[in-house]
């Protein structure tokens, strides 16, 4: 696999731009399955990711982050909006044109085991996309499989084994190898370490970081907590009920969170510095409301400890340039 030249001309042009992206799932009722409402899993997202960058998408279960990832790689059709990837609008591309562009856009799943056919040997699973897209003959594909297995920290002997013969961490390495073998530019990492033991999580994060440097990869890294993303991301977008409520550089988000929801997520993250342990805490109570019936105004007002009347009536806009926040009363102090 060819290493990409990291000192190649840097461009300010984003690799991918998401504009007003919506993904609604219909709720059907009655004998004729009439659509009575929609679950608004993704509700008007706008963001861009630059080449070589990692943007983390963070939020509790049910906030729409996995639907966002699956819609971006076109495992789901968007309801509305644009996905501009390398100048092509994926929301309108179809057939062969879409397939060609999709090769450059891969996904790593949280549970690699469910995405690996248990009846196939790892070598065949990895060679499959190369052969299916006629990107290599059998011999070349085999060579590439052996090479990629070494790159992700396994050995070429592993190609003859079946997925059930591997540990969780090794299976995630196979998932990474499968995403990497087509030499993509962007990888959506959908909670790739959430199901792993803490000690293994660090190894997989290190591997992803090394691969990013080596092959100049761009990541959309989806996670439900802020722990893993501090280490791997350049920027963080915090999602709540289908919308981004705060987005900014990782350092700024950790030092000066402006949205009460971001602050609450940070409070769930262990604080190594004892002097910061008494910082003001916002503890999340209750569950995320149903995206089929989101609260009016600011959708976080039902759980926000500083909500006021206006929050129940007016939806705050995402405002600000470097660190944008959607809140009528953004936090000022930060955690330092
Ligand atoms: Fe809380 Fe109001 Fe800000 Fe929403 S807009 S996060 S309810 S203060």
UniProtKB/TrEMBL annotation:
MF terms in GO: ATP binding; ATP hydrolysis activity
Name by which UniProt lists this protein: Peptide ABC transporter substrate-binding protein
Residue intervals of the ABC transporter domain: 27-266
PANTHER family, A to Z: ABC TRANSPORTER, ATP-BINDING PROTEIN, TRANSPORT ATP-BINDING PROTEIN
Keyword Secreted: no
Annotated GO biological process: peptide transport; transmembrane transport
Naturally occurring in which organism (per UniProt): Bacillus gobiensis
Keywords: ATP-binding, Nucleotide-binding, Transport
SMART domains (UniProt xref): AAA
Keyword ATP-binding: yes
InterPro entries tied to this protein: AAA+_ATPase (IPR003593), ABC_transp_ATP-bind (IPR050319), ABC_transporter-like_ATP-bd (IPR003439), ABC_transporter-like_CS (IPR017871), Oligopep_ABC_C (IPR013563), P-loop_NTPase (IPR027417)
Similarity field: Belongs to the ABC transporter superfamily.
